[in-house]
Amino acid sequence: MKPLAFFLAYLLALSTVYAGSATWSATPLTGDWNTATNWMPPTIPNGPADVATFDVSNTTDISVSTGTEVNSIVFNSGASAFSITVMPGFTLATSGAGIINDSGRQQNFITGVDDFLIGGEAGNISFTGTATAGSQSVFTVRGAEGNYAADGGHIDFYDASTAGSSSFINNGSVYSFGGVTEFHDSSTAGAGILTNYAGAAYFGGNGQTEFVDNSSAGNAIITNKGASTFSLGGFVDFFGTSTAATITNEGGSVAYSDGAWTTFCGFCL
User: Fold this and answer.
1) How far is residue 213's CA from residue 203's CA, in Å, rounded to a whole number?
2) Degrees (nearest 5) of the Cα angle 20, 37, 67?
3) If 0-12 CB within 10 Å is exposed, 13-18 middle and 19+ buried, where does residue 11 land?
4) What does pTM read for this prediction?
5) Is the pLDDT of residue 248 over 50?
6) What is the pLDDT of residue 116?
7) Widest CA span of the chain, in angstroms?
8) pLDDT band at 152 (very low <50, low <70, confident <90, very high)
9) Per-residue pLDDT tens digits for 59-79
10) Do 209 and 245 contact (CB within 8 A), yes or no?
11) Which is more confidently placed, 136 or 261?
12) Residues in contact with 175: Cβ distance below 8 Å, sequence separation at least 6, in sequence order
């Protein structure tokens, strides 16, 4: 075989190993999404046309350890209940159909955070195009665990994507930034359930939901929790021409604690 032909064949074989649609193994060696041998066939779903499928498995705690994009994430009928954590500094993006949960079980997605004393990154999840977060899934957006200038997790909806009827928990932090779910462009919260928690301790950052551009809260139910310490209550912001839904703001539960709030800011951005 000529050198060029050999090299092209090598690249084709390499791409077959490291990118393509696949099903999570029933008996994977580890819980790392980005290890090819954990999938059948042994290829990592990480491309705009790739589908990651989950069925019954003895390993259900999964970590996304590098930036990853898929067309869709499918949980087959009868699939195990999984917890998929996006590690700090990385993004799990769905750019096609989104999340399809036919398992009959709750599926969990979590944004991981660093626990450095100063600074630290967080994991992110994004939906683009017409991707949906589907149904019967819970997304936990963790607040920062680092003490100062640390990022909380983010979930972002772009284009015409939707939260479907899934649940989103935006947690507060102890000292730094809380978790955020944000809707951009013409995306919608659909029939989602979103809960924004207060900071976890004194001066802790709050969980929040933000609507910008021409996004819509749709028929979502949004609850902003009041603080139980001297910290900020959960809140939701509407910017641009975004529109609201059913929102509950709870008061603080102890003296000098902050109640939750909702703001409408027109063309602030």
Assistant:
1) 30
2) 55
3) exposed
4) 0.83
5) yes
6) 59
7) 79
8) confident
9) 999 999 999 999 999 999 999
10) no
11) 136
12) 144, 146, 147, 148, 150, 201, 203, 204, 205
Place of tokens 């009868």: 78
108/96 Cα distance (integer angstroms): 20
Could you tell me the two tokens for 147? 């003490």
Nearest to 168 by CA among 145, 189, 199, 198: 189
Residue appearing with tokens 């992110």: 124
DSSP the chain: --HHHHHHHHHHHHHHHHSS-EEE-SS-SSSBTT-GGGEESS----STT-EEEE-S-S--EEEE-S-EEEEEEEE-TTPPP-EEEEPTT-EEEEEEEEEEE-SSS-EEEEE-B---SB---B-EEEE-TT-B--SSEEEEEPPP-SSBSPPPPEEEE-TT-B-TT-EEEE---SSS---EEEE-TT-B-TT-EEEEPPPSSTTPPPPEEEE-TT-B-TT-EEEEPPPSSSSPPPEEEE-TT-B--EEEEPPPSSTTPPPPEEEE-TT--
Q: In what order do the strands lie in the sheet with 83-86?
A: 61-64, 83-86, 107-111, 137-141, 167-170, 193-196, 221-224, 246-249
Q: How far is CA 189 from the centre of its chain?
A: 13
| Whether pLDDT at 1 is above 60 | no
Give CA–CA dist 235/104, Å, rounded.
32
Strand order across the beta sheet in which 235-238 lies: 39-40, 22-24, 51-54, 68-75, 91-101, 124-127, 154-157, 180-183, 208-211, 235-238, 261-264
Token duo for residue 175:
């000292």
CB 212 within 8 A of CB 240: yes
